[in-house]
Write a sequence for this structure.
């Protein structure tokens, strides 16, 4: 994996001069939790591939995957237990709130699969919970370890959340448009599963306004490369791809606003600027 989330914790700590060997346990907690969520999500989504390899439930079975995820969740708490001072309470509060929100986001994602109608606003809220809050948590962990004040912690958290939304929108775009050799997952998987991504929801709205039934027809097509290619062409024609890219840019801009407002030297914030730019422009 990219290990982007634990890197955010290490960078967050470095903003407040926390040594890496002190931040590493919080960073590991974030990475263990993230991989727990991926293993369980892959079971729910029946995903065959993760990071270019068979998923845990595919290589072994669902029971082994469930238990493996549970162990990783427990390992996250073991890492946080390394902190035995006043910071532990704040670390646990943020971690527990985030864990609940990630599960809520996953539930919303599953609910959307059978919902007759999902708004674009509801989708953004789902990815905020499922993906973005963990990025915010990762960064705030660094600020908590550095004993930053609450307003500073919130700015860093908000940066992570807005960046996370932009990151997930990029993931949705890559799911349809990525180079399969670089992506590490099944390209077009969301389309094949009729998953309600921001691309699909935007295309539906545009199609309804234009009385265009081609998006509805997409849902009943056989799972094949032809369906994926049809979606690419259709989403481009309806302007969905351009709209989604613009939405991504809005959240990226909000993230940078929070970053700029941090009361820290500009040089210290530069690694986060560079990482943010990489995440929203990545090809995998």
């Amino acid at each position: 994996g990219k290990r982007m989330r634990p890197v955010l914790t290490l960078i967050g700590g470095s903003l407040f001069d926390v040594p890496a060997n002190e931040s590493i346990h919080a960073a590991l907690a974030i990475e263990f939790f993230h991989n727990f969520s991926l293993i369980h999500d892959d079971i729910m989504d029946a995903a065959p591939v993760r990071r270019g390899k068979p998923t845990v439930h595919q290589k072994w079975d669902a029971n082994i995957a469930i238990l493996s995820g549970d162990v990783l969740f427990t390992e996250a708490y073991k890492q946080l237990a390394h902190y035995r001072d006043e910071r532990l309470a704040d670390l646990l509060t943020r971690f527990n709130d985030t864990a609940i929100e990630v599960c809520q986001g996953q539930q919303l994602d599953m609910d959307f699969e059978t919902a007759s109608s999902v708004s674009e606003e509801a989708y953004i809220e789902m990815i905020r919970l499922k993906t973005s809050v963990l990025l915010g948590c990762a960064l705030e962990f660094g600020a908590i370890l550095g004993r930053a004040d609450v307003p500073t912690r919130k700015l860093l958290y908000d940066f992570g959340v807005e960046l996370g939304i932009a990151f997930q929108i990029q993931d949705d775009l890559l799911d349809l448009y990525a180079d399969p050799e670089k992506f590490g997952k099944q390209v077009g998987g969301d389309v094949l599963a009729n998953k309600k991504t921001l691309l699909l929801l935007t295309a539906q709205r545009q199609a309804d306004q234009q009385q265009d039934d081609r998006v509805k027809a997409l849902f009943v097509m056989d799972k094949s490369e032809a369906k994926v290619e049809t979606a690419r062409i259709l989403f481009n024609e309806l302007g969905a791809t351009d709209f989604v890219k613009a939405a991504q840019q809005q959240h990226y801009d909000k993230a940078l606003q929070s970053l700029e407002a941090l009361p820290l030297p500009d040089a210290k914030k530069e690694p986060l600027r560079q990482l943010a730019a990489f995440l929203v422009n990545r090809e995998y």
